[in-house]
Give the backbone structure.
Amino acid sequence: MGKGGRRVLVIGYGNPGRLDDGLGPAFARELERAGLPGVTVDADYQLAVEDAQAVAEHEVVVFVDASLTAPEPFTFRRIEANAGGQFSSHIVEPEGVLALAQQLFGATTEAYVLGIRGYVFDEFGETISEQAQANLAAALAFLERVIGEGSFSEAAKS
């Protein structure tokens, strides 16, 4: 469990076959290796409506994705549910997954987005650029500390 016995879900998503777009799954893979107690880690190409159930089963969820526009090395912010956002069977934004968790399961999950700055997205390949790898390492150290301290809301304000 994270500090205070809170169950934490981390979902890393993106396309590992599109270079830095694979930052989310790479983050999930590295966090899984850390084996933090009480932390469930998942990775996928994209978010899906099915993720709402897993979100509802946790007190905190962190959605991790690559960002082309985030300041270096990453951003971390709290999000609120938004059922009116982009939503289809192929595209669901984190705010939409959270809205489904609330509507279908009565979830009160706190939700955050960790956007890791990437640089190369327009080619095919399974490597992450050197600078994006540095940003990934900084994001991992940050979230491991936040999970250990249970300081999600404080970290999102800084």
Remarks:
- Helices lie at 23-34, 51-56, 94-105, 130-149, 152-157.
